[in-house]
Amino acid sequence: MKPQASAPRGPTAESAIVLGEMPGTPDSAADVLIIGGGASGMVAAIRAARLGRRTILVEKSPSLGRKLLASGGQRCNLSNTLDTDQFMERVGREGRFMGPALAELGGPKLREFFHGIGVQTVVLDGFRVWPETRKSATVLAGLMGELERLAVEVVTNCEVQSTVHESTEDGGHFVIRYPLGEFRARQLVIATGGLALPKSGASGGGYAFAESFGHKVTARHPAGVPVVTAEDWPGRCTAHTIGKAHLQVDMKKHAKVARTGDLIFTKSGLRGPVVLDISRELSPLLERYGEVPIVMNLCGGRTQEDWQLLFKEWRTAPVRPVIEWLEEELPLEVAEVICELSDVDPTTLLQKLPGEAKDTLIRTLVKTPLTITGHTGYDGAFVTRGGARLKDVRPETLESKLQPGLYLCGEVLDLDGPCGGFNLQWAFASGYLAGSGLGLAAASEASKKS
Fold it and tell me: What is the pTM of this model?
């Protein structure tokens, strides 16, 4: 299919004007070319265009923002209410790298940005920021409308094959080749995303582009992904969500890997916010060890001491089987599994439960064992862990330290966060910062010439 250029008018609109051969045509040259029409690339294009840069946005898929449409269950959790320091702390590894981007378009500023393009936002739970409509399509329509207003040239169905920089007396330019020709631009932004959710068009092509300019790319793993267990008992508990479940890796070297949140059992394992969060750490461990033992506290963090006191109260209450007491604290199917794992007959009257059996039951309640053997892969992942190494990118502008005029933003970088709006916030903010950097570089270049 030939690449097409237009300013699309809706979330599923396709381009309408067919471009001819690129070399030598006016449309082939621009100040800025952005590869990748996802959340980060669109915002980078908007910011660059607002700063007066002639911008071309290239996307290999038929339309922009396909992964954005799928985000948050098609509801699009844009961000959250944490302040910058809290946000970076929650991200953990390399979170401080986000500082300059969040200063440009963090939290409140991101909401103002969206309000300015006609997308109203709302906070429903005191934490997550959503579009008021709770529809990803609203967010995409707002971004695309702003691209059109700014006359950003959008080229879809255009898969970039290679990127090089050609040096000239006036500073040089980037040459971006695709099957029918090439583009030329003073500045280049790689905003191609990662490997997660390939049905949205993700392929990880941006990593090769980054490497072609000397960037090192770290090992990549699915993150924000459901996991598979060796045991089959989670399949008996699929009707239930466990609130405030605590999951911890049961390996001495990795015991600090732990998360708390809502847990959902599946036929093959586990999903839910707590699982998606801890999967960021589990994926690399699975590749290294093959399987990862974990322990779970499914009772809101209740300790062994808490359970001892509760059992003491129960012993003075009317006579009832152990399972009936446990069912007051856990779903029946989960309580039955706890009894099985503890080798306790669930019909045993609690008052007749031997002390050793009670202690075993309590230990299992506090640390329910499970073995993680895999995950659902990139098809089920929300984000990619790993990417272009951060040490080679300037955090204050996201310009490459290795190739002047090259910028990297969003998921292509080795930076990801937990669930709850962290990754989309980073995509938007990093795109905006890259766009700002493009404008600063252009202003500096113009000043030198004058």
Answer: 0.90
